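fold-stage: in
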Amino acid sequence: MGSYTPEQSLDGGFPIMEEPMGTARHIKIITIGAGVSGLNMIRRLRKSLINYEHTVYEKNPEVGGTWFENTYPGCQCDHPSHNYQFSWRTNPAWSQFSAPSSEIEAYLCDLCDAENMRPEIKLSHQVSHAQWIEASGKWELEILNLKTGEMVLDSCHFLLNATGVLNNWKWPDIPGLNDFKGDLVHSAAWSKNFDYHNKRVAVIGNGSSGVQIVPALQPDVANLFHFVRSPTWILPPQTDRLLTKSSVEILRGAVMDGSKFTQQQIQRFRDDQNYYKSFIKATEEQVNALFKVLVDNEGLAKDLTVTLTENMSAALKHDPKLIKAIIPTFTAGCRRLTPGPGYLESLTASNVSVITDKIIRVVPGGIITSTGELIEVDAIVCATGFDVSFRPRFPIIGRNGNLQDIWAKQLPAAYMSCAVAHMPNYFLFMGPNSPAGHGSIMTIAEQVARYIVVVLKKWQTECIVSVAPKEAAVNEFAGFAHAFLPRTKDLLEKVKSEVEAKGRWKEWSTQWGEMDFEQAIVFPQKPLLINPFVIATGRRSIVSCADVTNDEEVSAMIAKTVDQLGELNLTSIGNGQVFVANAGIVIPNSLVETTTAQFTQVLNVNVVGVFICYREAAKQMIKQGKGGKIIGASSLAGYRPSPGAISYPTSKWAVRGMTQSAAMELAPHDINVNGKFIPMWEVLDEAIGKKQGLAKGEAFDKSVETRSAFKRASTPEDVAALVSFLAGPGSRNITGQSLLVDGGIAF
């Protein structure tokens, strides 16, 4: 797995132990968190180790983790109940196909009592600091007793982080949110005192929480305004198309009363163990069958897309407005498929309004949208999710510093998702590259615990002081995981459909990632991926959407980049303070064919958009006070235009002048402004070829052959190399220049 340090005596020799080989020496273990992973760890240690001491610190007043914390109306598991349970404690008495949160919490509390786990658990104790002490070979912890306010000190040989990823909820970043005078509630911190009956309620978000809250509130509120940012696929309770015939028969054969099991069915689960095991296996097959959709080896994703579209349309009563707002146009599997019993039906109710307009700000009496409309509400429910960045919630200091800081600067990585380089005797559950988005976390927790126990036994019997994975091993595992991602449907299709044509974004992002740039990639419409090419280089990447012609959206995009990645980083619309304004469109029409609207549209994006990006990037860089690099995007058309696209060269000549002017103005702030100019891309080939009677590709080849000195086409890699140079330190004395990568077409 990695490196380990054997015990040595003070004089450098090795002591002779007066004990039999393989004797298990005493080991002290601390687990943080008494949720699913923490409770399972208690049992696994009891079954596997001897001569050990184990303490679990839990910040909440009861065990259960996320199932103790999430109590909003309609909260339930989005996996089949009989798949969401430990293999060592099955529960034939689940009341319904997908159990409510209260029932899962009761299940966890019951097994905690039945297994007599409470003596090992300290409730209302929050770990606030952990540090590895090399001299003692132990972790030293500071723990706050939330009842008394006392700070408790403790130490251990091994530290197990079972805090999970669904416990650090966050408010949405909406201007004026705290100015609201009504009830403001987050789904993950639901107040028992919140009375929503007969009120006008806004629900923001249609993720896993939102699709459960809406149908739960709808019957009891006066009006429900559901704010939806992007469409999402809603799964029916069962997906027969993906299952074997025997599993379909077993699942369909269960006697249900709506979504609930009848008492007769529950009794059959109890009495017939063989049948119950087959039912459990059928639910597991249903969950795992979705993997086939991701890899799309058999066209299942397309088939499922058709089926879901038909089912969702029917549930929405074929309402055109709702269909446009809720049903995605991308293939099923490009985003996590969300079970939502009753959600679609609730949207058709007369007291529900689905709103896709962007929220501009919150005012004391309600919400203002991008249309300028004020929607007056009495309460706002934010179903806006959690911080799932993997960064620890408190300082965890290993050999190379605080893991919080390390993972803030680089892509989180862990060997087998549970062990971190330079963090001795430290394991975590649901870490980077864990299969947390696929299958039951109960199964994952059990398998990770088994793996950890193997290491603990080795430590006990082989006189080891510390064990940690080598950085090379961590990187190799991450590389394996990232290499697999492009095979999956969710990334593959989005790369094809939303990343620009002919590999341009792939090559640029890869080169910038390899230069240690962290990238905020911006698209005009909301993409649904984190760029896999950036991830594969080991750097962080965020993806957002912005209309570059909209001042507020560009400003918000830069603010998001600074908030999530630090000072203005390399972004594809914008290290070391670099901003690439790369937005641009072309409408290939001649002078006499181009309408005023088309001409204005091109100039609005290519000129006004670049101007707004230049301006907002300059504001941020001046504020940072560390200089910076702004790189504008134009075209060879800014030097030597081609016929058939009058608006395009006009806009690119304008960008050329704008770049020179901005360079003069920003030089006192040590900000370089340059332009990168590229030859005709293949995107123009088809339109120009059609006008000239040429086959696809011939117009492009003809342009290269007749105009390029080298008689070879420039590639995305060529442009990426130029941008990388302009973004790097070697270009410190270059500004106001418009550099060509054209193979010698214009001089």
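fold-stage: in (second)
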Amino acid sequence: MRNPQNDRLGRKNSVSPERSAKPTAKPIRPEPSQGTQAGRVSTSLDTNGGAGKANSPERTCILSRRKGTRDDLIRLALGPDGSVAPDVRARAPGRGAWIGVTQAELDAANAKGKLKAALQRAFKTNEVTVPADLGARTAQALRQGALDRLGMEARASNLINGADRVEQAARGGKVHMLIHAADAGEDGRGKLDQAWRVGGGEERGVIFPEERTILSMALGRENVVHVALTDPAAASRVRHALGRWLAFTGPDRGLEGGEPASRTGSADDVLTKE
């Protein structure tokens, strides 16, 4: 196992009940006409040229009334005891309601009682208990989904790590997504970004909103600072998981080049790059 000089191993937090991320996503490197640019993360799950999204029934956010597919929004599940919990995989049994807002917007609606009122209308019952930290729980579930997705792709041998291996693959045009830990050095990032451009890749890799210790534990490997997805479908799945997390947590958790990502009201708005 490679041990890059400046890397170290840490620990990863876990979240229950969320276990694994949804394995579908939008093509990761669209043509310029599609409007998606390098360095930002796609949150759309369209993997069938639009067919999958077209066939998916629309849901409506109970707060903003924005419409979207189940892949665009986040489901809140009602437990038997009336408690509300995030169901980011949309797999929990029973009744559910959908939201399409940021964590800040959700927290504000919760504090003012608007969220509880909207949930009571959606569930057609007054027996609804909304935890004060629902926003934080939802963000943690999305975070865990992104980490789990990276771990699954690592176990499937769809990614590589280590500066030398990543650079070689990037120059050879074999990298479909490049990820840097939040604490990766600027020189190391720049060198690999340049190699990716030489190999016909995007302008730069994305900066993951966690440090190398978390990436190392997520992948089950030591000393993970730089990660390259070498399978296009795997890169799509990772892009989706990261983009969905970012769309909820908001611009302060930007991924692109260390800069906050813009957000104007929906998950897909995260795609644009300056």
